[in-house]
From TrEMBL:
Provenance organism: Novymonas esmeraldas
Family annotation (InterPro entries): STI1/HOP_DP, STI1_HS-bd, TPR-like_helical_dom_sf, TPR_rpt
Pfam families per the UniProt record, alphabetical: STI1-HOP_DP (PF17830)
Keyword field: Repeat, TPR repeat
Stretches with biased composition (Gly residues): 354-369
Full protein name: TPR repeat/Tetratricopeptide repeat
Sample GO molecular function, one term: Hsp70 protein binding
Keyword Repeat listed: yes
Isomerase listed as a keyword: no
UniProt feature, compositional bias: Basic and acidic residues: 230-245
């Protein structure tokens, strides 16, 4: 029959107590043998909780590898009910007695029992920052970082200058890669109560925080440079678009001016003899040396201008301008006739067709003046 020493039994009891408080610990690698034995005995376990990593923006994942990086593998401790107001004398005495027992157990290396007694002390006096800070230390020594962080936060809610809690939280944050948070807590703890053992951790955290700050600064500068370059590219593209639009508008305006003033590509040779100097063969006693009335309206009509650029219509219009009487022979032309009629209507509204006299075009068909007169008859008388 195997015999167990008091130390063996005490160690086993501490492990069992710890697993009772944090059932998820049964999945830890160092307890694999205990888990296997319990499973063979018929025990079942809840699934292992997914490790809760620190938020991405708080954790430094870019620096050199950290062999002492932790994960929050454990669960938070069981909640302790709050009590309103100050504790009663009985509660205060019971809390102090439990805390004293916890300190004695901790000195004897009985961490699990010490934690249990500190939980008892907090149940009597949950408003004590000192009790929360002390239990945070015990949790940290038991490799329960999530529980330690929980208790440190509770202590600092009640007393922001609790040195134990500042050191515990700073240490946990150091092992989670939260360099700025760790630097803040450890610096505050050292300012309140300097500790030689804390100083090496503080120097390490300062170096890591400086590296992180430099990387963040370089990244921000690179982002700003890229934003400035992108803004410059956008401005250049806007200038190019404005220049292109201005060039297109100028080309359209130039084409419109050319179409309105000189009928480019229109009648061969333009108006015979050109506009200046008058229309050759114009009205007798008419308007030598100027544009006939109505011509401005003709040159502004897009349909007439387009017809003047038609290679089939332009020569006939040129012929009509030289010999207005030829217009009568063009009236039946399906392409020229409508244009001639439109020109005639505009010219007659302006005082007559050039070269056709003040009365406009001669009437189509019939006698050339007013009502027809009867033929003379012989006077038989």
């Amino acid at each position: 029959m195997s015999s167990y020493s008091d130390a063996d039994v005490g160690a086993l009891n501490r492990v069992v107590d710890a697993v009772r408080r944090c059932p998820g610990d049964i999945h830890r690698p160092e307890l694999a043998a205990l888990k296997a034995w319990a499973a063979d005995a018929g025990a079942t376990f809840a699934p292992a909780p997914a490790p809760a990593e620190a938020p991405a923006h708080d954790v430094d994942d870019e620096s050199d590898p950290d062999e002492e990086r932790w994960t929050l593998h454990d669960a938070e401790p069981a909640p302790i009910a709050e009590k309103a107001g100050e504790p009663s004398d009985a509660d205060a005495e019971a809390a102090m007695a439990a805390k004293a027992e916890a300190a004695e157990l901790h000195s004897d290396g009985k961490g699990a029992e010490a934690l249990a007694k500190m939980s008892e002390a907090l149940a009597h006096n949950p408003g004590s920052a000192a009790y929360w800070g002390l239990r945070a230390v015990y949790h940290l020594e038991a490799n329960l970082p999530r529980a330690a962080l929980h208790d440190a936060n509770k202590a600092l809610e009640r007393n922001p200058q609790n040195v134990r809690a500042l050191r515990v939280r700073g240490t946990v944050n150091r092992h989670l890669g939260r360099w700025e948070d760790a630097l803040k807590d450890l610096s505050a703890a050292q300012a309140i109560d300097y500790d030689d053992d804390t100083n090496p951790i503080l120097r390490y955290v300062q170096a890591r925080a400086t590296q992180r700050h430099k990387r963040a600064l370089a990244r921000r500068q690179a982002e700003e440079a890229e934003e400035e370059a992108a803004a410059a590219r956008r401005q250049a593209e806007l200038r190019r678009q404005r220049q292109q639009e201005a060039a297109e508008e100028e080309a359209e305006a130039e084409a419109a001016r050319a179409a309105a003033s000189g009928m480019p590509g229109g009648m061969p040779g333009g108006m015979p003899g050109g506009m200046p100097g008058g229309m050759p063969g114009g009205m007798p006693g008419g308007m030598p040396g100027g544009m006939p009335p109505g011509m401005e309206a003709i040159l502004q009509d897009p349909e007439i201008v387009a017809a003047m650029q038609d290679p089939e219509v332009a020569p006939k219009l040129a012929q009509m301008m030289q010999n207005p009487m030829a217009a009568m022979g063009m009236m039946n032309d399906p392409k020229v006739g409508p244009v001639v009629q439109k020109i005639m209507s505009k010219m007659m509204g302006g005082g007559g067709f050039p070269g056709a006299g003040g009365g406009g075009m001669p009437p189509r068909g019939g006698a050339a003046g007013g009502a027809s007169r009867a033929a003379p008859t012989d006077d038989l008388d």
